[in-house]
Write a sequence for this structure.
DNA sequence: TAGATTGTTAATCGATTAACAATC
DNA sequence: TAGATTGTTAATCGATTAACAATC
């Protein structure tokens, strides 16, 4: 597992910046200032400058940042300038939705297939991509050099599925279940618990 | 918008605790200690104790917390002990998936319907729930006393949809798009950007 | 009783924010 | 030049962690 060169909050904010900067690029703007980005997102300019600094970008005082350079700097920092072969494990509602989610495909995530234990789902063509049985996972993933497994099974099945993913040699699991997975040290798990977001909104209502 | 009585990181962790405590309850265990929860989640016991304290629960030294009391305390703190009538706005892949997501329905979120501009989607029966046109939103939401709108439209349509949601009188928007919504002060927006999670895993690989 | 666990008070750590010189 | 913006260094703020007395 790599040691990130920036704090997790900073990394989380970078995609929002990138989205705004790409819009500026589409609008033909050659430069953009941290102040502009901050206003758009309701953040402090100093925070945007500090965040952008982690990508190695150098701005021009009084002018701002070169839009094309900045897009490249962020994409490169996030490794979004190269494709990441990925699979979905668990082709239920959420798995199928993520399979067609444009926010991922726009940023290098290349979902090659889904895997499921339910024989009824097999052979389906979900968003133009195949659904295979769990037995086919190992050979497929080694052949396609899969880097990321997106885990969308019910929580009761999550640990067993994770064990399988580890066995296959995949080193990164994006865990959409609400349990903590037990995996070897060299495997990265990023937990994305939608009920955490629901908890926030429930308290704020 | 309510001022939460706990930090956002604390609130985010509570659902994971609740899940473990409910499992203990199902297993018939009368008490559970912060140490047990911490071990399960790979956290520090002191953090779990501090987090649980915000719910007002009182534990017993040497014993731990009464499981039933603790479940009630967390559910009550998160307002998960009452139903929250909700709607999905944008019945695309993600919207449909969230409509059937059990992690929400298990915790009081009661999704009553979805709304979409695409006439092809209307009348569909998605997970046993109806899909209506945007025009029907206002009367439906006022009648059903909708509290939360889950926004799953493409980002280009997000601000217009949010304006509509505000107009209807809904005070909480769960925003799954990657733009910042401009809404009146009394409307709460919780942004849930899946590309932020993808950024983390991309950097950690 | 001895030992484990709670809850409180204090210390540490890291992220955010402020101040300001440098620069175009 | 004057003024806006960057990048650096320092200060603040808040969350996490540590220490420890209280308790069953």
């Amino acid at each position: 597992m790599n040691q990130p060169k920036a704090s997790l909050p900073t990394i989380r904010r970078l995609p929002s910046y990138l989205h705004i900067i790409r819009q500026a690029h589409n609008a033909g703007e050659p430069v953009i200032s941290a102040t502009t980005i901050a206003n758009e997102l309701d953040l402090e300019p100093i925070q945007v400058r500090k965040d952008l600094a982690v990508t190695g970008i150098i701005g021009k005082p009084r002018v701002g940042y070169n839009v094309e350079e900045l897009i490249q700097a962020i994409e490169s920092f996030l490794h979004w300038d190269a494709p990441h072969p990925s699979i979905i494990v668990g082709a239920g509602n959420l798995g199928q939705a993520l399979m067609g989610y444009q926010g991922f495909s726009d940023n290098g995530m290349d979902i090659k297939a889904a895997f499921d234990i339910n024989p009824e789902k097999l052979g389906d063509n979900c968003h133009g991509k195949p659904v295979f049985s769990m037995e086919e996972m190992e050979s497929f993933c080694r052949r396609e050099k899969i880097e990321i497994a997106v885990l969308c099974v019910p929580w009761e099945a999550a640990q067993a599925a994770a064990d399988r993913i580890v066995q296959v040699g995949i080193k990164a699991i994006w865990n959409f279940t609400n349990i903590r997975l037990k995996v070897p040290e060299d495997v990265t798990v990023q937990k994305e618990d939608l009920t955490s977001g629901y908890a926030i909104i429930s308290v704020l209502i």
Remarks:
- Residues 33-35, 45, 49-50, 53, 58-65 of chain A lie near DNA strand D (CB under 10 Å from a C1').
